[in-house]
Amino acid sequence: MPQSSGTRAQAVSTARDFLISGRFQKDLADLVSYPTESQRDDRGSEMRDYLEAGLIPRLGRIGFDCSVLSTEAGAPVLVARRIEADDMPTILSYGHGDVVHGQAADWGGGRDPFVLKAEGDHLYGRGTADNKGQHLINLLALEAVLATRGQLGFNSTFLIEMGEERGSPGLEAFCERYRDLLRADVLVASDGPRLRKDRPTVFLGARGALNFDLVVRLRERGRHSGNFGGVLADPAMILAHALASIADRRGTLQVPGWQPQSLTQDVREVLAHLPPPDSDDGWGDPSLTAAERLYGGNSFAVLAMRAGDPDAPQNAIAGHARATCQLRFVVGTEPANILADLRAHLDQAGFDRVEITAEDDVFFPATRGDLSGGWLKRVLASVEATTGQPPDLLPNLAGSLPNHVFTDLLGLQTIWLPHSYNGCNQHAPDEHVLKPVCEDALGIMAGVFWDMGEVN
Fold it and tell me: Residue ranges per domain, the chain?
């Protein structure tokens, strides 16, 4: 590698200055201005514009060759590559430029979801936290390293998709098709929140998620609750009892096969060092700590329920009832068995009239990285060298993301460094990032990328 023209400290300082000088805010304002709501079918042109006009010029200026490709579902995907030498390691980075619905009518203080607004330390706008601000931080950190050293010292590939908020349809097939283009040694990416806004977090995977409906269909329409009350079965009551059999009054899972199988001693030891998450007293499996329930366990949730017309109730026994449910699960829970285990449980409990319908568009497998991996050790040491404190280490995120594409398909160790915080209003009105967290993250990522370039 050629002699460095600057120092690590200079690269970190340059990256932090992007926040102080207003450069980060200016660039983020431009990215936020693209209304890339992937849950709206009429945003196709905005999706492509975000990649072609929003990101490609920035990447091109720092030596990336860019291509906009498409998934089988039709969503555009940006693949950007900077190849410095064939014998250097390659770092793959991921982000998504799509956002959830803007919910413009619900934002406070005269804010517009697609116009960045600075208020004190807050930068408001849709996508600031999820995920435009996060992949912008990583791009600017690379720019800082290049400005200081003249080269990265590794090959860099960026994958930016535009369908994550719809469950990343087609991403797995896309990565299979372009496996050679995406070949890498490790994934270093950013999404989600830190555990603490004043301390960085590193996580290695994510809980899986499976959504499904439980439905009781007894009659085409409701029947008079006086004329038939006590003689016709009530689908809402049947459904309520079925739900109560899945988890007890504390939310502890009762379905055989749904209990976590991967809460090993090394995972417990890592979780024991984390700050306790916010939790309700008397809720959750009492045999586990709050951190073990959140990051090392499985959880069942009822996302929505309906019987009759809640907005205009009638004196009638509903003909049918439905609950949309979700299981969040960790590594060790076999996804293919989840609904089969539930079917067996419901049948055993006498709820054979409860139908199970899977929602194929909401499914992420669970992943968890190696807690002793070499790349992880480098990243942890780098973060501590920059900040003076070790980061919070999570075996996996409590939420879900398409990490399985990188671990299972591409065979990569995955290391995630989130740049948001728990109060960012992700997926809600008034989404925002905090300037101090962004400044800290810019320096951290410049340090990480600098140290990655020293591997050779």
Answer: 8-206+367-452, 208-363
In sequence order, what are the beta bridge partners of 305? Answer: 323
Residue 90 pLDDT > 70: yes
Whether the CB-CB separation of 72 and 53 falls below 8 Å is answered with no
CA 344 – CA 445 distance, rounded (Å): 48
Q: How many of the other CB atoms lie within 10 Å of CB of 3?
A: 6
Distance CA 436, CA 19 (A): 9
By CB atoms closer than 10 A (0-12, 13-18, 19+), residue 242 is: buried
Domain 208-363: which CATH number of 3.30.70.360, 3.10.150.10, 3.40.50.1580, 3.40.50.300: 3.30.70.360
pTM of the model: 0.91
- Band (360; pLDDT cuts 50, 70, 90): low
| Choices 3.40.630.10, 1.10.8.60, 3.90.1150.30, 3.40.50.11030: CATH for 8-206+367-452 | 3.40.630.10
Q: Which residue has 């879900």 as its token pair?
A: 400
Of 304, 347, 307, 301, residue with least CA distance to 217: 307
CB count within 10 Å of CB 388 equals: 7
